[in-house]
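Structure Section — protein described below
Tokens — whole-number codes for backbone shape
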Amino acid sequence: MPVSEPLFQIDNLHVTVEGKEIVKGLNLTIRHGEVHAIMGPNASGKSTLANTIMGHPRYQITAGKITLKGEDVTALKTDERARKGLFLAFQYPRAIPGVTIVNFLRSALRAVRGTDMPVREFRAMLRETMALLKMDEDFARRYINDGFSGGEMKRAEVLQMGILKPDMAVLDETDSGLDIDALRTVAEGVNSLMDDKRGMLLITHYQRLLNYVRPHRVHVMFDGRIIKSGGPELAEELEAEGYERITGGKPAEEVTS
């Protein structure tokens, strides 16, 4: 597929949760090598969007389409979307005591690739990825998120992204609960994994993550829609002035960009 075509596209997406419409006609286009950020106040539908992109069964798509590399993935299950090249880093990753990170990563890679990688080759790739992310190899021997700090949980998610090498990564509030040092470390890892073949969508409340992972485009989501888009300066504007100036306290259908 020519790289001039969108890598990832959402067209007129409508999503309901337990009968209530949360996402209300959202459109988004991300091209190869682009980082986009979605910001917005609480209850604007950001995490619903992230889970819908990854195919969570609780979120029902009632209209619209999600396309990856020119292929309609709207009806695919979560594991099928992962095999196509989609990845979601969770806001609150769960602990799995008794399962080491290294074993989990090898299982995840096998599931996405459809074939097993020889142990020696996998361990070489793991060491290379951890070196790129400036992570101690002992980290991979720990149980998944068991007793982890917020920063360690998010670094584990970034490590998973580095091993799976998705075409399109969605990071749902990766900066949540991180102090400034942990945020900088995680952001450095994210930056090291980006290249001109991939795309990334950052979902966040605050501008601080975007100080370290510089987006090409910033979008404001409110009441289930994107109501304004701009360059990186839009995030700085939101940080300084808040969302009220854009939303005006009105329902999203009354707000123009």
